[in-house]
């Protein structure tokens, strides 16, 4: 696995952010904190857990039965009492918890902690009135509106397990997820708004619940006031009606630390998306700690994470983490370039955002449209910047640092995954930052770059990124596929293997290079090659398909598809468009190939597996490497 990468390690360049942005940071001194963790790993996490409220203390911090971890054994808690009650019944009752902004400036909704608390309690009572009980699964398919977060928190309040499905997914992706978890309730919205247009979601839900016998009721948030969608009363119920006469208090269900909090699907390499299961106690502690320490949340901060809660970033750093820290959070249903490419900078100025967490794809898009857009706005409120989802290349780092951060803000390039639940590698506030490098393991985590025998590789040599030993917010299993869970811990015995390739510099800073498996990260979203291929093959004209990721300056990667047609079908432009449309309808717009080539054959192994890396090498004009397993 050890390979040499073309990484320039000769002229390291480090930036140190201004003391004004970093003084009195929660993170403290990195080396000292890290030493404290090494001296007493479980004690380190227990100290953090004690900052939160528990109904019952844990007996033991950790039971590590490799590869299964239990954290805070027999501890009892509810994550929503920590996100809401803890603030409402202390000093933050009237503090703004949530500010929602739609596409235009007359669309704004604001909740104080107290208002959010009551809304969550009432919706939780509403869910109970539909018969939802602890352990039941609830699927949430909504755009970014306050009700999306309210639905998530209401589930957590009563111990129901939420599965949020990103509103950009199509019918079959939604159907697959509803069926996989056996959702009892689907909470949806009539429409999502994109570039001034209302895009129907309810019709997608109607199609997606066919052949999903577990679904008992669909709760529909009706946003369209002039022409409200019709509800079919035998199955569907209005979101507001469900809350209407409910009491505004709802006792929180005491959850065991190891009870599941949610299931979130992430693309797998085999075509079946994986339902990552997170547990209440450890997830709460991990997201609370990293939000507080990595982003340095203080009481007067205005916090904006641009991710949709349909992804893990939205779960951990758009909902749970920031509310656990009692932050004032901005959420928006905006597209970064609508009505123009100044919208996000406009929002930073308008709301006085101090902490801004976004993705390299967005940063690169803004770089392309030019500095004149951010220059129109006053961004001086910004104090901390963050990046996630794919490598933040040095050019994008520099631009983010200088143009957006005014050369004063620290940038936390955070490496982590749906599976890890929380930030694993980054540069903690106050530490020097190296463009292109995420940084070092956060205190509490042991991570390394190793060869295929698990030996640490020297600086400059590429290898597998691994995490050693358990951490509180690690996934507990994969829903109904525990065997797949164990695989993460089998590549390198004793280690969690992330399937990412990385390289270290001489100071231990880690640069993440890319995936070692067949996932394509497009604009920060993981797309499984197999998912797109199976969507293509489900079209009547397609015999076989293979897809690869092609490096793209804007999106990180784009998808290129190679398609073999069934005899009798002609490779026309019309058919090409039809196939792209077919993928859009099956998987949603994020998964559509930007290139589609008709071919006569595909490179395969003798065992019949498509060798995508050969296709990719050919496409990029590179040496395909070892092709000994190639069939022909
Ligand atoms: C949080 C999230 C995980 C994969 C991960 C890696 C890539 C995420 C990154 C990064 C380089 C970073 N990734 N953050 N690569 N630098 N800072 O994105 O979760 O959707 O599960 O994706 O994303 O390849 O393995 P998820």
From TrEMBL:
PROSITE patterns: AMP_BINDING. Its EC number is 6.2.1.1. Residues 89-479 form the AMP-dependent synthetase/ligase domain. GO terms for molecular function: acetate-CoA ligase activity. InterPro entries: Ac_CoA_lig (IPR011904), ACAS_N (IPR032387), AMP-bd_C (IPR025110), AMP-bd_C_sf (IPR045851), AMP-binding_CS (IPR020845), AMP-dep_synth/lig_dom (IPR000873), ANL_N_sf (IPR042099). Residues 531-609 form the AMP-binding enzyme C-terminal domain. Gene3D superfamilies: 3.30.300.30, N-terminal domain of ligase-like. Residues 30-83 form the Acetyl-coenzyme A synthetase N-terminal domain. Keywords: ATP-binding, Ligase, Nucleotide-binding. Belongs to the ATP-dependent AMP-binding enzyme family. This is Acetate--CoA ligase. It comes from Methanoculleus frigidifontis. The lineage of its organism: Archaea, Methanobacteriati, Methanobacteriota, Stenosarchaea group, Methanomicrobia. The gene is acs.
